Amino acid sequence: MLIGGEWTDGTGGERLDSYNPFTQEVWGTIPQATEQDVGNAIEIAHRTFRERWRHVNGRDRAAMLNRLADLIEENAEELATIDSTDNGKVIRETRSQMRFAARNYRYFAGYADKLQGNTIPLDNGQMFDYTLVEPLGVAVLITAWNSPLPLLANKLAPALAAGNTVVIKPSEHASLSTLAFGKLIAKAGFPDGVVNIVTGDGRIGNALTANPLVRKISFTGGLPTARRILESAAAHLIPVTTELGGKSPNIIFADADLNAAVTGAVAGVFGASGQTCIAGSRLLVQRAIYDEVCRLVVEKVRGIKLGNPLDETTEMGPVANRAQLDKILAMIQQARDEGANIAVGGAKASGPALEGGYFVEPTVIVDVDPSLTIAREEVFGPVLCIIPFEDEADAVAIANATEYGLASGVWTNDLRRAHRVAREIEAGLVWLNTYRASYVGAPFGGTKLSGHGRERSWHALLEYTQVKNVMLDLSAEERDPFAMKL
């Protein structure tokens, strides 16, 4: 682990195995941090912030962030290979994610020297008032196993640009790329103690989230863990940004470009083996084109090539770990038990190159009743539910009939309808005639049970800063000490 600029094992001596989901073999181990390790990392981050980092100017922070982006690009192949080996994502995806991560650091580098306040004209001309935009202090950043470094970039880039120090906790299921990334921190010029990395499972959760020295928590992951974090952080009123799951609707109207829409539907849920919070796992199709869309989707899904995630031609790799494999297969079986009509897939994938891995067949369930469990709960796997709808009002009603509200898609050539539906959908993100597209300058986050707060764009800076008001009395006149000065 990286604590105070030093690489160290956990004080308890325990290590956890990291499995390659393609082979089911152990290919690395990580330290299991103890509460003492976590407390030490937070204390060092706090001391570094107080004594050094908060005095570093924005220009110098920007230079470090830009250098970090350069280093990510220089080491992109290694980092992408680690992630693909650790979580099963295909290499063509993890490579692009490294480019995305580098762009994130460059984007926020541009903000590092622009965190400026305002002067405020007051009614009383003898008073001078202004604001300062300041960092919060120690930020704890907790990432998920599906996209370790891109998710980290969403948090770390604005946190460092704003002048905070951090303690990073990656998922125990995919920590190796974060540790490899940690080796770039000192090379980029960051002082020891600014960026710290602890690893391990949920046993250290409370030590991370209930420490009174922590001033901010950002978490990406599942709803049950988010609830525990919020409960833990509440004791010290630590603000928490959460980016959680989704059951995102992808809506195809009868006037849409069907080829583009079907491709977008497949990309929306089978890209990354469906292990993405923005997965368009509910495909809503207008009745007039329903049969044709189902046929086209099933045809495309049958052609998806499963295999080694490091093979350039592989389109879908294994799911990331055994627990996820078991969960997905159990949810598919539950759908069967509830009467679901599975058009393709629905089982653990088999074949000459697949037997050793955690592969799930790309699965399409048609004629889905929105009340089915598979249509309401997040699967986080390559499973698509296709649901028919009658008209615009029906589509919006079905789309919003969920506790989640992260992403959504609308496919139509009717410009007015596109914007009407975008306004009505309860989600933090609406794609129009596209799906699963990202830009670092576009805000990202959810509503309802999909989370709170925003990542990326200048909105993310607000998550890691606080405003201080400074008021100066320029007058020399004596005042009434028992009345507020206005």
From TrEMBL:
Pfam families the UniProt entry points to: Aldedh
Transmembrane segments: none
GO terms for MF: oxidoreductase activity, acting on the aldehyde or oxo group of donors, NAD or NADP as acceptor
InterPro entries assigned to the protein according to its UniProt record, in alphabetical order: Ald_DH/histidinol_DH (IPR016161), Ald_DH_C (IPR016163), Ald_DH_CS_CYS (IPR016160), Ald_DH_N (IPR016162), Aldehyde_DH_dom (IPR015590)
CDD domains: ALDH_DhaS (cd07114)
Keyword Transferase: no
Domain Aldehyde dehydrogenase: 7-470
Similarity annotation: Belongs to the aldehyde dehydrogenase family.
Protein name: Aldehyde dehydrogenase
